[in-house]
Amino acid sequence: MMYSRGSLVDLLIKSNVSRYAEFKNVSRILTYRHDNVEQVPCSRADVFASRQLSVVEKRKLMRFLTSCVEDTEEQQAYNGRPYLEFLRDQQLGDNLQHFLVHSIAMVTEDTPTEAGLASTRHFLRCLGRYGNTPFLFPVYGLGEIPQCFCRMCAVFGGIYCLRHSVHCVIVDQESNRCKAVIDIRGQRISCSHFVVEDGYVAAERKKVATPTRFISRAVLITDGSVLPTDSEQQVSMVTLPPIAAGSPSVKMVELCPSTMTCPPGTYLVHLTCQSTGSAYQDLSPLVTRMFHTPESHDQGKRPSVLWCLYFNMVDGSAVDCHNLPSNVHVCSGPDGELGHEHAITQAESIFRKILPQEEFCPPAPNPEDIIYDADTAEGDVLSRQTEE
Amino acid sequence: MHGRVKIKSTAQQEEEKRKEREKKLKVYVAVRDACFSKRKEGIWDDEALQLTQQLLSSNPDFATLWNYRREILMHLETVKDEDEVQKIYVAELSFLESCLKINPKSYGSWYHREWVSLRLPRPDWARELSLCDRCLSLDDRNFHCWDYRRMVVKMSAVPVDQELQFTDRLIGSNFSNYSSWHYRSTLLPLLHPVSPEPSSPCRKPPPTSSPPSPQTHSHRVCEEQLLKEYELVQNAFFTDPNDQSAWFYYRWLLGRAEREEMISCVYVSRDEERVAVAFSRPVNALSVGLLLVLDGQPQRVEWRSVHPRFKHSPVWICDFAPGTISDISNEHNLTVHWTEKPTRRDCALYTGRTESYCRDSATDQELFRSELSVEKTSVLQSELHSCNQLQELEPLNKWCLLTIILLMRALDPLGYEKETLDHFQTLRDVDTMRSEYYSDLCSKFMIENTIMKMEYAEVRVFSISDKKLTTLCHLDQLLLVTHINLSSNQLQRLPLEFAMLQCLEVLEAENNSLENLEGLYHLPKLEEVSLKNNKISTLADLQPLASCPKLKCLDLRGNPVTQIANLESELSELLPSVTDLLL
């Protein structure tokens, strides 16, 4: 999932990498309460069309959404106090408070007001750039995005050696620099810099937040949408507030076949939250309630789960590596956030360390502006980075 | 190629672009000249089609070329068989699509598309409709497309309910869209007409027989549907109260019924041997077949409006031949026929009476209340309640305030007078750019209220002092008024329509800003005029008064005109009938 005004979208546009990708708008924001899936009205058109809100609520919501963009003294008075308290004092009512906290700001009830407002504003800034929700989803899935960058890199000479994963690195003791890597076939590849995912870094060189932060995830294939409409091609972002005190709030994405991630007639569902237990413990109660699974008690009209997988992974944002050669750069794995701010910042900072003089992801030139001249081959800066 | 990428410098690129442009221009000009010369020679061949296509595909706004193309196509129609013509026109349509991509608002392309569509032997209207939908989804306010779509809908007879769903869809995606709301207002009366029997529920297509009587309103919508529309439009203006389109649609929903056309008043005066007739709307009496019958005898009279500048007027007058009705011991029966409608009004002038009239008063007709339509009071009441709710949330929203005022007027104009005045004051403050508009509108409503009060009191005295009036209106309703008091307002002129006050004897207009008296024109009974403390500055401003034969008293104190030397003698020359002059 990408914020339509996030740093990833900006980077895709700036670098022209976007030409290799296609996107679909997330078409609606949903939330789950009182055992019901509801659409969250967030754009002007949604508010207008919403059937759950009274006209007075509509006015209050619109007024809040337009007024919260500006910093006011009234807001500052709530700094440090919970966002929910601030909203309550705006006389918004339960409905609107729920939408604003869980689905628009996507924070918890005790998040401080300034943070809640900041994420509300971010949501609003993203709204309407490409559609009626703030999110984009890359057709064929998020895996497309690194591929697109790789493709751009390859067009300008980057080389990829597939099935040559790194077995070990050769480090010059004196300079504490990585001289080369040896792949699993025993081939030595010299390098001036080595960029690697944190999964390859030995545990003793990693400093992990204690206790280790994990992300619980579930992937489901279902036979219907959690909120069916006339159109089967909805891409939904579902925010699920904690179902009980102490349980995590869950973000769920439901993808329709036109995102090219699942066969016609099915939906692909991702659920993600910060772990409090195992993925199964964290997520299966919710899945059982929202979908029809073998464990479900009743036979209510819910989509059936055709296939599911629960797993936990380390929260990439919580890992720090140390004691590494100076020219070894570590990328962290995925984190639990919706956007990709961390990955982009990290990529840029690694790039800066390697090539302090160069612009990060400059706009790729148009094909007709490139001069093809074989004799002038010089320098191999752009081309010699092998990435995992 | 493993080298660092070399990129052309900006200067290089510019130079190349410039050359490219030059080349393009050369080709363009050459092709254009070729087209023109071919047209001059009257050549209508495939090559000409190709050349114009080449130019139009880069510049679809070249109207002459579209004309040429039409000439060629019309020629081809005469020499090819139907299948070939169909093929040519289908190709033309797909070419037009590429032109619309270049300029979606090209007049030439849309016009040509309509032309082609209408000539196509076997048109595919469904395809055209979906093209329109695609265009409108890209720009829902492309009026070229709206126009074209109207033609397509008409030609392919798309059912009205389907079209209504179409507006639902557009309004749902963005309700700031006049075109959609307006389209809705044309569809609803077709789909849910008001049924002749007030109690029966909505019926689908309008009954073909029995045209609606003048009292029912053919462009109105049945109440059941209206309630749904109120809900829809309220959702819009609660979501965004600053968006005008929804408010305008709301005004239409609440909108007034068409007034019944009728003769609202006939007045006859023995002294002047004159008849004055008032109509419910301005008419040209010379062309509507007006017939005056006196005691069974059609009269040959000359109708004239109250001022020669009015070709259309709600009030018309005519004089009998001298001696026709002057004998006070005679009784007369008058009938005015409006033969075109047809409608008529009778009036009897009894023995011993110097004047007589017969009329439907404004209160009888609920003239001012039906400014909004004749909804059930309960519906209007609940609409007022919603608007008041919104106003509480948005106390300074002008659209909301104005709508509240209108609703209050529809419900109880006199009862809500104070609130109305307060809301007008707020409106003037929050929307200073239109404060004059609000002042005029407020004046209009105050005049309406005063007319109602006068009629309830059954008097012929119209008194509206100290109400901040900035304009005068509804003067046709004051045909019978003998005394008018306009003092202490903000009037700057007595407009020409003022001449409709055919019975006026006394005019009080102190403490205004009057500088123009053109409406005091041939008022046959006017005797007394007080213009104290106004802004009359020249003798010429007083000229109209010379046309009022019975003027005796004139108060001009506190006007700049009194500074003129010899004023008194000048005035006695200008207004010889005046005996009582205050300067």
From TrEMBL, chain A:
One of its GO terms (molecular function) is GTPase activator activity. Belongs to the Rab GDI family. This is RAE1/2 domain-containing protein. The keyword Cytoplasm applies. The keyword Cytoplasm applies. Keywords: Cytoplasm, GTPase activation. GO terms for cellular component: cytosol; nucleus; Rab-protein geranylgeranyltransferase complex. GO terms for biological process: intracellular protein transport; small GTPase-mediated signal transduction; vesicle-mediated transport. It is found in: Cytoplasm, Cytosol.
UniProtKB/TrEMBL annotation, chain B:
GO terms for cellular component: Rab-protein geranylgeranyltransferase complex. Residues 198-218 are annotated as: Disordered. Signal peptide: none annotated. The keyword Phosphoprotein applies. Keywords: Leucine-rich repeat, Phosphoprotein, Prenyltransferase, Repeat, Transferase. PROSITE patterns: LRR, PFTA. Its EC number is 2.5.1.60. It catalyses: geranylgeranyl diphosphate + L-cysteinyl-[protein] = S-geranylgeranyl-L-cysteinyl-[protein] + diphosphate. InterPro entries: Leu-rich_rpt, LRR_dom_sf, Prenyl_trans_a, RabGGT_asu_insert-dom_sf, RabGGT_asu_insert-domain. SMART domains: LRR_SD22 (SM00365). One of its GO terms (molecular function) is Rab geranylgeranyltransferase activity. Residues 263-362 form the Rab geranylgeranyltransferase alpha subunit insert-domain domain. It holds the Pfam family LRR_9. GO terms for biological process: prenylation. Residues 198-214 have a biased composition (Pro residues). Catalyzes the transfer of a geranylgeranyl moiety from geranylgeranyl diphosphate to both cysteines of Rab proteins with the C-terminal sequence -XXCC, -XCXC and -CCXX, such as RAB1A, RAB3A, RAB5A and RAB7A. Catalyzes the transfer of a geranyl-geranyl moiety from geranyl-geranyl pyrophosphate to cysteines occuring in specific C-terminal amino acid sequences. Belongs to the protein prenyltransferase subunit alpha family. This is Geranylgeranyl transferase type-2 subunit alpha.
